[in-house]
Design a protein that fits this description.
Layout: H1 6-18, H2 23-29, H3 33-36, E1 38-41, E2 44-47, H4 55-67, H5 70-78, E3 105-106, E4 109-110, H6 112-130, E5 144-148, H7 155-163, E6 173-177, H8 182-189, E7 197-202, H9 209-226, H10 232-235, E8 236-240, H11 243-249, H12 253-256, E9 257-259, H13 276-282, H14 284-303, H15 310-324, E10 329-334, H16 342-354, E11 372-374, H17 386-391, E12 398-405, H18 413-430, H19 434-439, H20 447-450, E13 458-465, H21 468-489, H22 500-514, H23 525-538
Parallel strand pairs: 5-6, 5-7, 7-8, 8-9, 10-11, 10-12, 12-13
Antiparallel strand pairs: 1-2, 2-13, 3-4
Helix pairs in contact: 1-4, 4-15, 6-13, 7-13, 7-16, 13-14, 14-21, 15-21, 16-21
The structure holds glucose-6-phosphate.
Length: about 550
Amino acid sequence: MRSSLPEWKALCAHFETLTPCSLQELFQNDAKRASNFSFEAAGWFLDTSKNLWDAQTLELLLALLRACDLEEEREAFFSGERINRTENRSVLHTALRSRSDDRIEVDGENIVPQVHAVLQQMEIFAEAVRAGQRLGYTGVPIRNIVNIGIGGSNLGPAMVTEALASYSDPKLCFRFISNIDATDFSQQTRDLNPAETLFIVASKTFTTQETMTNAHTARDWIIQGLGSTDAIGKHFAALSTNSQAVKEFGIDPEQDMFEFWDWVGGRYSVCSAIGLPLMISIGSSAFAQFLTGFRDMDTHFRESPLERNLPVLLAAMGIWYRNFFNAESQAILPYDQYLQRFPAYLQQTDMESNGKSVNRQGQPVDYATGPIIWGEPGTNGQHAFYQLIHQGTSLIPADFIAFARSRNPLGDHHDKLMANFFSQTEALAFGRSPAALRTAGVPEELIPFKTFSGGKPTNSLLAEELTPHALGALIALYEHKIFVQGVVWDIYSFDQWGVELGKELAHVILPELQAEKEPALGHDASTNALIQRYRNFKG
Ligand code: G6Q
């Protein structure tokens, strides 16, 4: 068990000696703390100095990482070993951003040519749509691109398409449908003209209930809107690994299917064909810059020494808070409206990867693993939940993410936004003491309520501008952070068995909801009664 390692125990002892210190003291003890704890890679500047750690903490954390064979595990990951053991798969999302002359083997076969062949196929398709050359059944150009997918086949493309919307062709309209609730389909399509609408059915397996239900509804919508089943071929494309099911749906796999592979996990798939909506939106050359951003962070992660390695540092710090401070959650706070879906995206990447409670030997772990990930864009969060981060009883480490230049430089909005970004991390770190309040003349009875204890840890992540490259590098930074934490926690980060049971039970329950006659229910008393109540209510 990881918690029995001497390096883990050394951190427990260090925790006892460090934690009486405040951030003020840590800054006083080290005149160069801000620069000593700031790092740079792939266009991102990371200031970790406002964290409850010092040089010794970092040294001890890196010793733990090394004791967990991080460097060997990292090499096994990049070189295509089947590190997803419970599904017997390689984990090679890094190959999706390889250069065409790289060589990465799976079962002795170099997979890089396949990756680049699909990228080329995507490019031809995306540029045709952008040029108005992809025509619908009635001969008018496609203008609306509707992605149907869920989980990894939704969160990635939806987040990045919104994040890079300022680079998008304004003639085109992008929508994302994921929920099996028909409201999603209805709302997203109610103002669209079927003649101008292309559905991209994004599903690795092409069997996912939510996606296939929405895809069939879309097919009916097209047939009804355009009056012929012949229209289907012109209004659908598929992103999948399952060509047989794609063909059966009525999409020509040769022409309109974009393949990816079982070594790409859903939540790590945004650089694969799953990124097609983004490529249509921003064009293939900007998409190439997006991939370069990922690749630059991949190279940094693979080659830089651990002590200057951004994903490693974020991971180490996360372990410090999760396992030694017992912090249960981690806030992601982008100071950029375009990144409003980034916390939700990371929620899946992180929580589906590291929300595990058995180690790789199948034993229950006796230490905490993945934290709860959540967040909203600043400054909205400041007027909502920051109260609890500042003065509540939970320690919530937070990542603040921002850009020096706005994509929409109107008036002084951006400086005001950034003034909030800097002020919040300052206030969280250093607080406001009773003495300072007294000096400011605050009445004695209000002092307990107006005191800010400080010592609330934050990272500040800054880049020049939200470019495709910067976004790619940012996503890769968090992907690799998650990988490192999975290694330390000795869990399998690339499977997701925890989503299976609910899906299976839903298949049992669906016919019970639809049965004409009262079905015999074999669930627990609560579930039986709820199903009966639902049947009664719906009449
Ligand atoms: C991600 C998960 C999951 C998956 C969805 C959609 O890592 O595997 O979120 O992406 O269940 O699956 P399909 O793409 O097969 O429809």
